[in-house]
Amino acid sequence: MPNHSPTPLQASRPTAPLGGRSTVPGDKSISHRALMLGALAVGETRIGGLLEGEDVARTAAAMRALGAEVWRDAPGAWRVAGRGIGGLLEPEDVLDMGNSGTAARLLAGILASHPMFSVLSGDASLRARPMRRVMTPLAACGARFTARAGDRLPLAIEGARDALPLAYRLPVASAQVKSAVLLAGLNAPGLTIVEEPEASRDHSENMLRHFGAEVRVETLGRGRRITLTGQPELRAADVTVPGDPSSAAFPLVAALLVADSAIDLIGIGLNPLRAGLFETLREMGAEIEILHPRIEGGESVGDLQVRSGPLRGIDVPPERAPSMIDEYPILAVAAACAEGSTRLRGLGELRVKESDRLAATATLLKAAGCAVEVIDDDLLVHGTGRPPAGGARVATRLDHRIAMAALVLGLATSAPVGIDDARCIDTSFPDFLGLMRGLGASIAPG
Ligand code: S3P
Q1: Is 326 noted as a catalytic residue in this protein?
Q2: CA separation for the pair 295, 298 (Å, rounded)
Q3: Which residue of 23, 93, 272, 299 is most buried, as measured by CB atoms within 10 A?
Q4: Residue 389, Cα to own-chain centre: how many angstroms?
Q5: Handedness of CA 103, 106, 112, 113 (dihedral sign)
Q6: What average pLDDT score do residues 340-358 get?
Q7: Same CATH fold assignment for domains 9-25+242-445 and 28-228
């Protein structure tokens, strides 16, 4: 049953260190892609470790609305019977993608090259996010788009009857836009080519290959050129979803900040294009060990051993942003407790996430008593070597990562930090509360 009333929560400094071993929910990016490619493949795809958060549930519902069969056999264990490329059915109703930009943009790619009519919409946060970034490249395959206010959801899509292959150079690094173009290219003849100025997460490329598509990747300076051969026969494939490094980031930073903590996070995805936070925290002096590195389902995975300790401020270069784009709010929380200033550079893309995360992160830290500045696209956090005072209550603005970052901050500050509504956390991290409490965190209603 959906919960219709706000759920305020408050975090306070625990009386004992955090400790224990835990897994985290499955990777959100990989979960969306597994359901989508499963629906486009011929045969039955089995998925293990699927994230059972709100965002992924929207993708599962959308794939069902497009004619795929999707079953949940056990927690995290799902099956998809695909319809084959070009075989999706016209949906009878609006596809409601909830809070998920990834679901909306990737699906726009699939729908653009299927000859049918569809409408995408979402919650107030998603309806405020720009869609032009996918409409522009996808229109070149022959799809027609009509969007509210020019580039906002609801977005009506008339998919191309005989889609043309695409060739597109991304103006900014965006795995969502790259993936939308590649997914559209699946139902077009010939080669679809995407160039990205900086390498962004490559889960689509990896999974397309895993399902039998031909994908060539060339290095272009710091970026890449990806070439997909269109109209492959995608074959159903089993997918194992690793623990989401973007979710692991929250208990990880909590363990760094609460004195004498020691935790282990098991089975965390360590794709190098997602690992910017670990690298950055280590530069700040964090003790994070990677144990048992292994490959599972084509992705790098390992166990993280985290020990608390002092952090120092550093300068984080803009080119690192794509590898940690979702981690800036929690990194800023770590920086607020570090000794000296940290400059996080090149955060323009944060303004168009689930909320304006640049503003929301600055507001959170200021409310807790930390000195911060936003200079152009940079966030400057002035740490004093001790956690800020806390004693704040912040609005989460339908943004799960702001909600979790605020609660982790409250575990370090002398006075509690509260949030107005925790429900958005379910989009990416169901049972965040249970997991954090299991490690010893004090987070209570109020
Ligand atoms: C994602 C890409 C990123 C990220 C989002 C997930 C993906 O967005 O912020 O949470 O799964 O492709 P952008 O492509 O807009 O940077």
Answers
A1: yes
A2: 6
A3: 299
A4: 30
A5: negative
A6: 98
A7: yes
Q: Which residues contact 74 (CB under 8 A, 6 or more apart)?
A: none
Copy the structure tokens of residue 373: 């500045």
> Residue 2: pLDDT above 70?
no
CB 131 within 8 A of CB 155: yes
Is the confidence at residue 1, as pLDDT, over 60? no
Chain segment 71-94, per-residue pLDDT in tens: 999 999 999 999 999 999 999 999
- Over 60: is that where the pLDDT of 153 sits? yes
> What's at 409, amino acid-wise?
L
Superfamily in which the 28-228 domain is placed by CATH: Enolpyruvate transferase domain (3.65.10.10)
| Distance in angstroms (rounded) separating the CA atoms of residues 16 and 8 | 24
Q: How far apart are CA 25 and CA 34, in angstroms?
A: 15
Which of 55, 326, 399, 426 is catalytic? The answer is: 326
Q: pLDDT band for position 219 (50/70/90)?
A: very high
Measured distance CA(82)–CA(225) in Å, rounded: 29
Ligand 1 center–CA 174 separation, angstroms? 6
pTM of the model: 0.98
DSSP structure class, residue 88: P
Residues with Cβ within 6 A of ligand 1?
29, 102, 174-176, 179, 201, 325-326, 349
The fold of 9-25+242-445 is UDP-n-acetylglucosamine1-carboxyvinyl-transferase; Chain (3.65.10)
